[in-house]
Write a structure and sequence with these properties.
Layout lengths: L1 H14 L4 H17 L5 H52 L3 E6 L4 E8 L2 E3 L9 E2 L4 E5 L9 E5 L8 E7 L4 E6 L7 E2 L8
Antiparallel strand pairs: 1-2, 1-6, 2-3, 2-4, 5-7, 7-8, 8-9
Helix pairs in contact: 1-2
Length: about 200
């Protein structure tokens, strides 16, 4: 290859500054360069795919734990949003809101007092929040005489103090707490978790 370039330079030098012969040799050199370029063979491509498949197979189980952890965190964030919404609406509308727990359906839902009974809000917050089956939910809320379990948010801005603990199957915990009637719910950092 280098000898071809060397010969080309010599011939250019011999013929002068330009020349038909130099142009023809240039074209031949470019054609030879294209022929020398190699592409990936089918076996090389298959080997790369096999390596990728092995890496994915090894990392797959570890990624499952990550998604479950994210699901637990997202559930905690959604419950926190429900509590903040219920408290804000209770004060704004001047009526009592409840965050209800349904153990059988493994879900939470909001209701508010209207005409002496509790009904679901007519917006997105009125739809039940279904808890993933891989998440265990524990609360410090007592079951009332009707068999219902709820946190009440009053028009005065006061809330039933409570703790909600979410635990996934790998033992990761998120705890939401309202330690006094005048505080908002918050997700506790790991250092404050009750064990």
């Amino acid at each position: 290859m280098q000898s071809s370039i060397f010969n080309l330079q010599l011939k250019r030098g011999a013929n002068g500054a330009g020349g038909d012969r130099a142009r023809v040799l240039d074209c031949k050199l470019q054609i030879e360069n294209r022929k020398l370029k190699k592409a990936f063979t089918l076996i090389e491509l298959i080997m790369v795919l096999v390596i990728i498949a092995v890496v994915v197979a090894l990392l797959g189980p570890q990624l499952t734990g990550f998604t479950i952890g994210r699901t637990t965190r997202n559930t905690a964030t959604n419950i926190l949003a429900l509590t903040h919404y219920a408290r804000t609406q209770a004060v704004t509308e001047g009526c009592t809101y409840r965050l209800n727990f349904d153990d059988k359906a493994n879900s939470l839902f909001l209701t508010y007092e209207s005409g002496g009974e509790f009904v679901a809000p007519g917006n997105d917050f009125g739809t039940p929040l279904n808890i993933d089956s891989s998440i265990k939910i524990d609360t410090s809320i007592a079951v009332n005489t009707d068999g219902k379990q709820f946190i009440e948010f009053r028009p005065t801005g006061r809330t039933d103090p409570a703790t909600i603990t979410l635990t996934d199957r790998y033992g990761s915990m998120y705890e939401l707490a309202c330690s006094s009637a005048t505080e908002q719910f918050r997700i506790l950092p790991q250092s404050e978790l009750t064990k």
